[in-house]
Amino acid sequence: MAKHPDTDLVPYLRGELAPAERERVARHLEECPDCRQDTEQLRDLLDQVARSIGQPPDVNWARYRAELREKLDARRARRAWWWSPVPVALSAGVAGVLLLVAVWTGFQMKTGGEPFTPEEASLGSELGLLQEYQVVEQLDLLEDLDVIGNLDGLAAGRPS
Known about the structure:
There is one protein chain. The chain has 160 residues and is mainly α. The protein has 10 helices and no strands. The protein has a domain at 6-53. Helix 2 (19-31) packs across helix 3 (33-53). The radius of gyration is 46 Å and the shape is rod-shaped.
């Protein structure tokens, strides 16, 4: 006798088998009284389940489409808030400020930690001009800090 179609009995009863498979199960049921008895028990069980559940309600496809459209629109609205121009511009601005702060902090740490004033920055752009003067080149030779502190007065010819 061939292998028993235990897993094919319910699909057979529900009409879900391909024609060739359906024919194979039907031939087996003609030859096997045990499988025929199992099939009858399964048929009774399926009928009882169908009666206890009852018929499903008719589907209102218009209402279903409307609900689906509402859900999709709500999902798009939830996803789209962060992609609007204001949050993107705000995020870009914050990122720019953070980058500027990071670069400025790194530059200050590299130069000794003291920030530059605008006057020092403009003076720094003219350092090439100051290197032309021989007095400025010789300042590191001066050891008396009082002289360095009173250079402006000495240049004007005023004693300090």
